[in-house]
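Q: Is it fine to ask for two folds in a single conversation?
A: Yes, each is treated on its own. Send the first.
Q: Here.
A: Result:
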Amino acid sequence: MLSGRSLSRQIAVSTLYSLDFNNQLNEEVDLSIFPGMSEEEMKALNEDEIIFARYLITGVLENLEHLDKLISTYSIKRPIEKINIVDRNILRISFFQIENLKDTHPTIIIDQAVKLSQSLSNDVSYKFINGILDTFVKDFA
């Protein structure tokens, strides 16, 4: 069972996936209840999990153009629109965290991205995500 920041990251990916799938990334978003979650599920979350998930979601939405340019820069062989929706949003969240979470080492962010990809995406996506994020971290450092 996931908890803490891992759960928040999964909620953020699921929410962004839903918004991306429905072409609503540029619309006003109500995050009082995360898409796909019931009120009971929301009540089961602790305040820190909700706050961190909302931070990731709003951070990605507010920096979407910048994050997509970064992904496009590092995904040389696969244009962003060809990256599957789950992977695209894992990358968005990860790039956002690497640039903005100074209290979390990039290795941990990459590890979490790989785990999310392994549980939510296809069998080989985690290698693609790991490669892009690892290259970015080496350039970013």
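Q: Second one now.
A: Result:
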Amino acid sequence: MKADVTTLDAKKAGTVDLAEAIFGLTPRADLLHRMVTYQMARRQQGTHQIKTRGEVVGSTKKFVRQKGSGGARHGNRKVAQFRGGAKAFGPVERAHDIKMPKKVRALALRHALSAKQTSGDLVILDEAKLKEAKTSALIKTIQKHGWESALIIDGQEIDVNLERASLNLPHIDLLPSQGANVYDILRRRKLVLTKAAVEQLEARLS
């Protein structure tokens, strides 16, 4: 599969061969949804915690007669019915993450890349480097390409000037190739890959 290569100045820079097994699949919405759910679940800390009856400080002495009070037969004040007591069925500390096989995660990433290629939202850059760390220069570049929302994935490391210039741009994300993931790819309209990123992603997913 051939794809056009462009520069940051929006000039043509030849073509590149994309692997059909990675960029030419028919996207599966169910697999992408499953992977995004997996990623979102792993982000939850699960540290929310309420006090149970055993953790609330208070006396366990029976404070009212068993009969004759006209009320319920309570044994202590730590129950949920009283102010300051425990909470019934509240959240407890736990892990929210779910299991997903490594092969399925890799397959989902292939489908995410294929989805961008199928929709025409995949852009291949010769290289992603700026001469100066200026946001104004990056904005001009973005306007030339018409990127309103984009994820730029480079090789092993991201250019320092490009990273600093993008800090104040809310809809432009940068990732090294090893950080490529389904959620970040799908949450931005355009996926911008450098030639180095393409090579490393193909080596990773082959």
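Q: Anything structural to flag on that second result?
A: Two points. Residues 45-95 form one domain. The mean pLDDT is 92.
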